[in-house]
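Hello,

Our lab assistant flagged a job as stuck in the queue for most of the afternoon. It eventually completed. Since we weren't sure the result was trustworthy after the delay, we are filing this so someone can double-check. Below is the sequence as submitted and the structure that was eventually returned. Let us know if re-running is recommended.
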Amino acid sequence: MVTVKTWLEELRSRKITFAYEVVKDSTGEVLAAGRTKHICTDK
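-- returned structure --
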């Protein structure tokens, strides 16, 4: 089994960044990590 963790890494007026980790439950090993940035526009 794995656990997917996600959290808010940065919050600004028009930008939000989420970070992610996939962790193997039996060992606590981080199998993957990343982040996504989302930007709001008026278009």
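-- support follow-up --
The delay was a queue issue, not a problem with the job. The result is valid. The two ends are 42 Å apart (CA to CA). The chain has no helices and three strands.
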